[in-house]
Design brief:
Length: 148
Amino acid sequence: MKKTEQSSTSNPKVILPNKDLVGVRKPESIEKKEINEESKLPDPTGWRILVLPFKQKEKTKGGLILADETVERSQVASTCGLVLRMGPHCYKDKERYPEGPWCKEKDWVMFARYAGSRIKIDGGEIRLLNDDEVLATVENPEDIFHEF
C-alpha cells in the first residue's frame, strides 16, 4: 500500500508534508518575554548621566496623604536623583577629574534644579545630565529637605 491509501476504499488517508512555516514558532515554544522597564530607558551617550529624580512618599510623617499633582510637582522640582546609567565618556577626562569619578551607577546625587534635559516616561520623568552637573552624592535622599 502507498502512504496515501488505507485498507478501506471510502476515505483515503492523506499524509501531508511538514506543516511548519519557516520563521514562525510553534505556540508551545513561544517564550513569554518579560518586558523589563529598564530596557525602555535611553542609553546616555558621551559624558551624559541618566538620573531618576527622587519621588517623595505619598504620605507624610504626620499621616497626611498628598495629592498626585503635589507628588509629581515635587519630582519635577527635585534636586536629588538616582544614577541609572552613565555614558561611555563620563569622568574619563583626567584633566577635569584628576581624583576620578564623582559618582557611579546606583548612587544618589544632587544637581541644580534646572540642570539637564527632562524626559517624560511612564510614571514621571527622568533627567539626562552632563557629568559636570553633579553637585554632590547623598547617602539617603530622604535626609535632604525637598522644597518645591
